[in-house]
Amino acid sequence: MPACLLCHRSTEPKISLPWILSWQPLQQPVVCQACWETFTPIFSSQACIGCGRAQTQRSLCHDCQRWAPMAFDNRALFTYNEAMQAYFEQYKFKGDYRLRQVFRAVLTAKLVSIQADFIVPIPVTPDTMITRGFNQVTGWLNDGENLSWLRTTDAAKPIPQSHKTRQDRLLTAQPFELSPDAPDLRTKTVLLIDDVYTTGRTIRHAAILILENGAKSVIGITLAR
Amino acid sequence: MQATELYGRQLVLTPLAAKELPAETQKLEALHVTAQQLQCQRCGSLLDRQLAQLPRHQFYCYACITLGRVSTLTSLYHISEPNDFPKKGELTWQGQLTAQQAACATMIRHQFEAHQRQLLWAVTGAGKTEMLFPGLAWALAQGWRVAIASPRVDVCLELYPRLQAAFSNLEIALLHGHQTDPYRYCQLTICTTHQLLRFREAFDVLIVDEVDAFPFAANPRLGHAVEQALKPVSALLYLTATPSQDLLRQVRRHELGLSYLPLRFHQQLLPTIKVTLQARWWAKLKVGCLPRPLRRWLADYANRGQRFLIFVPRVAQLAVVQAAVQQAYPELKGLTVHATDPERLAKVQAMRASNVQYLITTTILERGVTLPGIDVIVLGADDPIFSTAALVQIAGRVGRSSERPTGLVRFICQSYARPVKRAIRQIKLVNRKGRRLRASMPVVSPLD
Ligand SMILES: [Zn+2]
Ligand SMILES: [Zn+2]
Ligand SMILES: [Zn+2]
């Protein structure tokens, strides 16, 4: 019997009604139901229309009102809670690449539900590829590679993002650039994918760059908010 | 990084982190990849290619990832153990060993000297930590590097202050998973067996305490850790009160020597287990009805004020059993306690201080808890949750003090399950040896 990727107990093969109605797809479950239920999905009817955080109604949250208006909005799949923090600790920081399977299906399902011309994962730095060995976002989408026409500049991430305070992160200069083989973005809609929306600074940097290069709009999708 | 941090160790570093290492550092392959096989060089696991893959044809070990990830992007860094211990800590312990403990201690020392591999089967309450002292003192005086490892963190935490008190001038390193202190190079290390995976050819003497405690028995990686942490010429001592079938098999194949300490420190035998078969004990208790033998025992306890423990297989049964006991004997005062009970320590303390007469508990009290003068009842001892080792340990809770070196261990079962039979047999075997030992040393009396 396959074991749950998170708690390592063998997973129940029987499929219950709540399981079917949950976000988890019907294929062989990679995590057990108990572990899956520790994650809190966000419903778009009860989320900020700017950053995707869970709230009581569909409106612009306090934080988002401070950003200059632009053709960008973010949607998040899950609230960044303790379980999500533990997941990222294991997947991204400990580097347990097997855990990409946990959110692969639900993220893919979300992407196909949105109309866009390009799907662009936020890249990691070349140093991260040497130490971690994978891009955590493309791990969910396909092969964990770091190849994209959106790439990090040499100045990017001098200190790990997770060690910065909100203030530091808001002040960071543009950490992205477009590679020479970037397509013509004029009038296009671009879907940007990142792992977590925290202050929004990182994904907004990428969105600004893409909008400056002529895109009509940018939609952000993050696993957690 | 300091050279001492790498003495006898194997640390995983990425090329970025390994830039400024001492010149004598050896760089070793971290993950061995062939067309057929993928093997972690730290924990020895053979890995599933699909699960272990990273992008760009890289691989990682998912088996020992809690210690930091081993991958083809990293190497292991090692400096061979120089035994650089200028200051030697001698034994400051002033206690006395019984004649049998002393005999055992001498034997342990000889095994260290001869670089032997040995299993010491010492009954619970034999005082095995003290018996290690003479051998440890000798090994430390030789400038040897020594480790005492246990699969259980709580055993390590208990051993550390005792060893520190016995060798008060010696710096001792304590290593386990929940720790934030930086690593220190010390002549004596106390650690969990898991932490041994970070060592390579480090120890001249390695002692593994409570070798049969979970999860060592179930985890083949830890056997690999033991082998890897030992120097090629070294002594290995396993300590157990309840040897597993696997260890006894190694003894039969002469891979391990075996010695017994069948008597407890007060020269008494282990209490034997008395089994009472009761087909429907749980069905009865569930409706608040105590099985007849249990009723009889409890009446006697209520009468005499005798303290006791009741073990049950499952946490959910605790409250049911307590309710039934309380209803029948309201004068008996007791508590229930289980592994994740936040008030666990306070409740055990209440029992120790005789503020309550009994505890109803799950297996959590089986090791390391000494409550002098108690009796034990195990309900459903045939439940698969109780292993042979657990049952022997539970029986070993009884008769721990010189004042009351005997006591009663009673099991209520539906049937004689294999672990129950094996536990009874193990106790009989060591008691037979104990009787023989006592007969051969008639003048020995316990020292105070
Ligand atoms: Zn699980
Ligand atoms: Zn918002
Ligand atoms: Zn490994």
What does this structure look like?
- The complex is a heterodimer of chains A (225) and B (448).
- With 225 residues, chain A is of the alpha/beta class.
- Chain A has a single domain (43-80, 103-224), classed as Rossmann fold (3-Layer(aba) Sandwich), CATH 3.40.50.
- Helix content of chain A is 28%, strand content 15%.
- Chain A is built from eight helices and six strands; from the N terminus they run ααβααβααβαββαβ.
- Chain A has helices spanning 17-21, 33-36, 82-93, 101-112, 126-131, 136-141, 166-171, 201-212; strands at 72-78, 118-121, 150-152, 176-178, 189-196, 217-224.
- In chain A, the strands form two sheets. In chain A, strands 1-6-5-2 form a four-stranded parallel sheet, sandwiched between helices.
- In chain A, α8 links the parallel β5 and β6 (217-224).
- Chain A is globular, with a radius of gyration of 18 Å.
- Chain B contains twelve helices and 20 strands.
- Chain B has a seven-stranded parallel sheet, with helices on both faces.
- Chain B has 448 residues and is an alpha/beta fold.
- The longest helix of chain B has 23 residues, at 418-440.
- The termini of chain B are far apart.
- Chain B has helices at residues 49-52, 99-113, 128-141, 153-166, 220-229, 245-252, 281-286, 292-304, 317-328, 344-352, 388-395, 418-440, and strands spanning 11-13, 26-29, 31-33, 38-40, 53-54, 58-59, 75-78, 117-122, 146-150, 172-175, 188-192, 203-208, 230-240, 257-261, 273-277, 308-311, 334-337, 358-361, 375-379, 409-413.
- Chain B folds into three domains: 3-78, no CATH class; 97-261, Rossmann fold (3-Layer(aba) Sandwich); 273-434, P-loop containing nucleotide triphosphate hydrolases (Rossmann fold).
- The model of chain B is unreliable at 442-448 (pLDDT under 50).
- In chain B, α2 packs parallel to α3.
- Classes of the chains: A alpha/beta (225), B alpha/beta (448).
- At the A-B interface, α5 of A face β5 of B.
- The structure holds zinc ion (3 copies).
